[in-house]
Design goal:
homodimer; alpha/beta; seven-stranded mixed beta sheet; two-stranded antiparallel ribbon; 8 helices; 11 strands; globular
């Protein structure tokens, strides 16, 4: 049984990491543990309270490093103990993975230097602050042992892609059927390249205050 | 702001209810709270530890009743305090909703009598134990103020359908774009009607021990 270490933090967008927690966690070859900056419960951006299994100070060795993202990533990005743990855990892990803006954390720890990586569509400009990372607009990107994915709901696609790559298509098929993944069509509003312009405008406006902290974070790094 | 009361319990399949927690919780018109049988933390089927916001004994009035399911639903189904809370909360709520085998809980509380309802494909035979409920194999079913959905990953489709019905298509479009819901194709293994026979056989075998408790529960009810 391989251990997936899922990093969790206050104000996280929990679906990023909990969709893979569910899909990998029911697979017999994986056990998922949650790891936070401290042992205290964290509260997600929609108010869910999660008790971490470990903190970065007592986390076990992990085989798969996984992180999700958040609207405002500055908390974990600016925590040296967190970035240090990512660097060490990522160097030892068999797989280094992320969903949504979680790829910024991998990039900050240097784990994506020389790799192609995905992120939430609205956070591609932030990934561009790491010149050694090749940002991609694809939904799931595998580059050697790095697998990174786009926004929030792509965590399901990430998990099935990961299972296919790590265990083979039979594993992915079994988990797909158990979790009944046969998505309904919901029209073109899942990505700005196809969404209605007024929807893109409304959502872009909504992201601006959320991302203000990141703008300041990268401006300070550049000076 | 309307309150969504999400029921959580030990050994739950957390994605059922946490996908809607994420998608509805980021919508400005909704606040999601978690409600468990007792105030103690619950542990999901993949080992996630969640601290509930309320127990059924001190839960606030809710506008939207939401529950997910589990492989083995006997714990909550056989807990009179839980079923009693469902009955009262469901009678007062504006919307009564479920994902996955959570519809068995709504049915047990009598909340689906005279309604059409969905559930996880493998749990349709259990929903048939409620003769006043019309079980449906659709992914998301709306029947008046009841919205019920199929297995696990249908929680995202449930949430977007609910937003469309409760707030209009603009709300659903905004949340779809924020969460980048543009699923990748993963082939036919998302439902037994299209999946490879050997995948269906392997998964059916896996569900058997999980569902053994439910078989005994309904056998005892019938006598």
């Amino acid at each position: 049984v391989k251990t997936v270490g899922a990093f969790i933090f206050d104000q996280m967008t929990m679906l990023d990491v909990l969709a893979p927690h569910q899909l990998l966690g029911i697979h017999p070859e994986f056990q998922v543990v949650t790891i936070a900056a401290t042992p205290d419960p964290i509260i997600t951006d929609t108010g869910l309270k999660i008790v971490p299994d470990y903190s970065v100070h007592n986390a076990p060795d992990i085989d798969v490093l996984l992180t999700g993202g958040a609207g405002d990533m500055v908390g974990p990005l600016s925590n040296p103990a967190v970035i240090d743990w990512f660097r060490k855990a990522g160097e030892q892990a068999e797989w280094v993975t992320s969903v949504c803006s979680g790829s910024l954390l991998l990039a900050e720890a240097g784990l994506l230097d020389g790799y192609r990586a995905a992120t939430h569509w609205a956070y591609l400009p932030f990934l561009a602050h790491y010149p050694q990372v090749t940002a991609s607009d694809e939904r799931v990107v595998r580059d050697r042992n790095r697998i990174t994915a786009g926004g929030v709901t792509s965590g399901i696609d990430f998990a099935l892609t990961f299972l296919t790559e790590a265990c083979g298509p039979e594993s992915a098929a079994m988990i797909q059927l158990i979790t009944q993944y046969e998505p309904m069509p919901h029209g073109p509003n899942g990505h700005p390249r196809t969404a209605a312009p007024e929807v893109v405008a409304a959502v872009t406006e909504r992201f601006e205050p959320l991302a203000a902290g990141l703008v300041a974070f990268y401006a300070a790094k550049a000076t």
